[in-house]
Amino acid sequence: MTRRFIILPAILALTTVVAGCKQEAQAPEPVRPVLSVVLEPAAAEGALAVGSVEPRYKTDLSFRVQGRLIARSVNVGDRVAEGQAIASIDTATFEQSVRSARAELQKGQAQLVNARATEQRQRTLITSDATTKATLDNAEQMRASAEAAVARAEANLTRAQEQLGYAQLQTDFDGIVTAVSAEVGQVVSPGQTVVTVARPDIREAVVDIGADFPVPLKVGLPFTVSLQLLPAVQVRGKIREIAPEADSVTRTRRVRISLSNPPPSFRLGSTITATLASDQTTMLRLPASAVLNKNGETFVWVVDLPASTVSLRKVALFQSERGIEVTGGLDAGARIVTAGIHSLKPGQHVRIDQDSKS
């Protein structure tokens, strides 16, 4: 009887310890206080660039042969039509080459007539054994050589006539002369630019943009382009081309913006101002302490206010001189954890200790 009363308290004590361990194991994680920030759109300062109106297509016209420039009928600003002769070089040398090639052709043709007649006589004589087979073979060889000489002379004449035609410079399309690079009396080399002609029907804005531009540059980014002298004249445009490398001196990139139906006042060479479209002039910025880097990707902890929990979200960011800007993955109004991001777990309960705005 005494032994039973001794064991019973021990069993009760052990049960109490086990129950306490279970309650401790099942106890919920403590709510963690965090610092956070609410993302709100910020104005994109400096979202403006100055440039000029340029043609999308232009051609540097040059002669294919060397010569002295004796005429140039156009100047900067002149309109030209397709096939119009705009410059010419001295043709004396080329005309002499044509005459020489024509004379060589006539000589070759005469020799061919003689060779064919000789061959025919030898064929007639061979039937009566009045000549030898070797003599006939020699006549056939002379005839074939004369035919080859005629073919070579014809090719030389064609080349000389082509070079004579190259002495006149013609345009390939309707356009406007934007530059003149050679004057009358100057000796020009093959490929040396004489006149530059641009197509005025397809115009675009060209601007140089630096690394401090508030948004990342990408093809299709919308802009509003206006004339600097007439700001009320505006057209919409989108980035068509971005230079792959920055200029080594200015560290800016050449950006070409295609224009949507520009009015006639957008003349080639006009100074323009390109401004980000209204839907692109705001952005979301993040503090550096809110960004979590994992395996080359960027994440942030987003607070779910109704549930008071956090979740990890992948975001696209752009680092500029103005800070870290969000380009995808987050919307305005999202609350982001800004401190202790390395010790949080998905679904963890948190308590907001700071109610600030970005």
Structure overview:
The chain has 3 helices and 26 strands. The protein has 358 residues and is of the alpha+beta class. A 6-stranded antiparallel β-barrel has the order 4-13-16-15-14-17. A hairpin with a 4-residue loop joins strand 20 and strand 21 (309-314). Helix 2 packs antiparallel against helix 3. The longest helix is centred in the first third of the chain and has 35 residues, at 92-126. It is elongated.
Question: CATH topology of the largest domain, what is it called?
Answer: conserved putative lor/sdh protein from methanococcus maripaludis s2 fold
The name of the CATH architecture of the largest domain is Beta Barrel
Give me the secondary-structure category. Answer: alpha+beta
Low-pLDDT windows of residues: none
Helix-strand pattern, N to C?
Answer: HEEEEEEEEHHEEEEEEEEEEEEEEEEEE
Keywords:
358 residues; 4 domains; 26 strands; 26% helix; OB fold (Dihydrolipoamide Acetyltransferase, E2P); single chain; six-stranded antiparallel β-barrel; Elongation Factor Tu (Ef-tu), domain 3; alpha+beta; four-stranded antiparallel β-sheet; conserved putative lor/sdh protein from methanococcus maripaludis s2 fold; elongated
